[in-house]
Amino acid sequence: MSTMAIDPVCGMEVKPHQNETIYLDMHYAFCSQQCRDRFLANPHLYIGQPGRKAPKQQGLEVIKKRTLRLASPLPPRGAEMLGEALQAMMGIKRVTVDELRVEITYDLLQATAEQIEARMAEIGVQLGAGWAERLRRAFAHYEEECEIGNLEIGEKRTHD
Question: 57 near 46, Cβ under 8 Å?
Answer without folding.
Answer: yes
